[in-house]
Design brief:
This protein is of the alpha+beta class. It has 13 helices and 27 strands. It binds alpha-D-glucopyranose (GLC). The site of alpha-D-glucopyranose (GLC) has 8 residues, from helix 4.
Amino acid sequence: MIHPETSAYLSLLRNKIDIKTVPFSDRGSRLLVFQDKKNPSFFIRLAERLTAIQPDIEAYLHRPPFIQDFCLLDEKGEILDFSVITYPHIVHLQTHLGDFAMVFQDAKTIALGLPPRVSAGIRFHVQPQFWETTEGGGVFKAVRNLIYTSNCEPVRNEITPDKGGYTVEYIVRAEDDSALSITIRDELQLHPGTQPLSISLANAEARWRDWFERIPPVDEKYRPTYAYAWWIMANNLIGPQGQVAYEAMMPSKLSYVGLWLWDSAMHALAYRYVDPELARNQIRAMLAYQLEDGMLPDAVYDEGVIATIDHPISAEVTKPPILAWAALKLHETDPDPDFLQEIYIPLVRWNAWWFAMNDDDVDGLAQYNHPYSSGLDDNPLWDHGMPVESPDLNTYLCVQMGSLANIAEILGIEFEARMWRKRAAAIVQRMIKDMWDEESGLFRALREEQPIPVVTPFNLYPLWTGQLPDHIRERLLAHLANPEEFWGEYALPSVAYNDPNFDPLTMWRGPVWVNINYFFIEALRQIGEFDLANQLRDKTLSLIMNHNSIYEYYNALTGEPPDMAADIFGWTAAVFIDLAIQANRDVPSGLEPKL
Ligand code: GLC
């Protein structure tokens, strides 16, 4: 059981992790344990694409679990019913024979502690091979190696070929501190053996306690969701493997297996509070795959990088340029000029790529060539065809050049800092000249020099440059604060509420995405609109807090997560953490929360 002195955060998370819908995993692990929704059993999925086995990069989303029908057995081999209590470091399984316990012995090994002095065990079905006939023949491939052992005496140990795989029945005579373990991995080294449960449990608890002990305090009302968000920040981490060169965070171990460019920048914003090197590694993991021309790929996964996509059109794919901005935020929390020195030239090349390869009409405003490069995949801004010169992209580039100016200054390269400032100012002027629409009071995205008739928060983005003339800024703020358009109960919809394209449920066609809220909070603070910034911060925090888990996006009318929104979503967790910490720091002096 949990030690009384254990971090209050671990206790706060008692039964918050619903393993019927989100995985019990661990920092660095690719193993995801789920409880079956109907039967007294579990299944184990792998957070791996395994494209060497099935080349389709999205096959992992539909692949059956590696282990299915994982049940607890009594000595006669009868299935034991159980009830579950979850914590980040342990899942207790209460049965009429006593308590079983599941913990990660290491990133590749799941240990199952047994009640003392009973005969009990497990049954599971595993399919370690993949085969299919191909046009000219066929292939047989090994998926992963599996080893099961225990630290006590087996009384039944049978492997039966079954349903294209094997059913294992393994019953042991438990002593005190007995455990069974299952290791799943690709290497064939000697197995470390099963440790007594008390050791695996003490290590797991220490790992998680150490994680929670580092997190900054926040107001009481945020703590349950804050604890859960930090659980996601650790649980979605994977260890280096293949092209994944650093320990890094998947947006969701459930549905986004890989590292994505702008997600990584957002994740780093949370990690900076607990482990600045882990935060910097999120950026390094993406810069490691910079292409020769300076482009950064959309995503990196074990077996490759994604730098082109062929739907809905075929083109190179990247993501918005926010790394320099994020790197400076890391520097604010943990100044590290060496890191800025290390990434300055890659960031300069990345900036140059946007203007060299993404500005067909050479007017100094960059364009998206593929909708997914915007990160706003299906937003109606891209319904009229590509390429599109858009205010969001050119705002990011302005912010990026402003960030490069600050970095150059920190590095003592004053003349470059001056050049970046001039360029940042020039792009604002250029946006005003080409994109500002006096009639509607919006910046318009342009397709073949024609304004695209859609109203989204991205048409207000240049607020974030902090360099707009008063009359433009005021008009944008009026749109932003208008409840008919954006300032509803669940701000900010990704398409204006009153735009004919608004669809509250479908990805970027209406739902609220909190990374966008975060950018607006940044923008508003920067231009001194603290009241609006705080309102948006509070709306964002309560939207996330209203639910038991943390999702990719939210219905803009009801605040509910649509079925298609990914669960345990990384940047929503990171934004919650950063905003809850900001809220804490904004408390007027003398009124600090008691923590
Ligand atoms: C979706 C989003 C994109 C994000 C990716 C990974 O494709 O549209 O912005 O980077 O998921 O989370």
